[in-house]
Amino acid sequence: MAVRVNGHLVKEALTNLVEAIRANPRLASGTTIVRVNWAGGTQAIGHVRQFEPIIVDEPPALGGSDRGPNPVELLLVALGACQELMLAVLAEQLGLEIHAIDVEVQGELDLRGCLGIDPQVRPGFQRLEVSVHIVSPEPEERLRELLALAERLCPVSDMLRNPVPIETTLEVSRTGVDFP
Questions:
Q1: Domain ranges of the chain
Q2: What is the average pLDDT value for the chain, to the nearest integer?
Q3: In CATH, what is the architecture of 70-163?
Q4: Measured between alpha carbons, how far is 159 from 84 in angstroms, rounded to an integer?
Q5: End-to-end Cα separation, the chain, in angstroms
Q6: Dihedral, CA atoms, 164, 170, 171, 175, nearest 10 degrees?
Q7: Under 8 Å between Cβ of 65 and 41
Q8: Looking at residue 8, what is its pLDDT?
């Protein structure tokens, strides 16, 4: 399997990136910015770089109109996509033959936490379960090593396993101002 990005092999692109960062470590750090605007009710519109806006909504049971995935579903998608992409990229770098990768992520959520019913129940997921299915002629032991490496290097998995400090600020306007 040759993984291509913009017509170039991922292995080649990552090798070039690693060399550039080794030559200038400041290239390794950056900031990712997304913007989310409330669209009324339980809907929000997420803006990521130049991509089409992402509609985020809740299902009817939570007062929404189900126009898009809800925030916790997007988190599961982020985890599954990160795991899958890390597996594909690392397989390419290691010369492993992979024909298909499928990742399913399940999260157990107790609504008593996020609805404020029981302060003893955390508002987030109680646990996550990731199931990875790989179609490959490679030995199972090599694929288990690949999975362990992907889990160790996956940024989303790292953020979920190791809390990231979050600093929230508030800016209040008293007049109807359009946000940028």
A1: 1-31, 32-68, 70-163
A2: 91
A3: 2-Layer Sandwich (3.30)
A4: 16
A5: 43
A6: 130
A7: yes
A8: 53
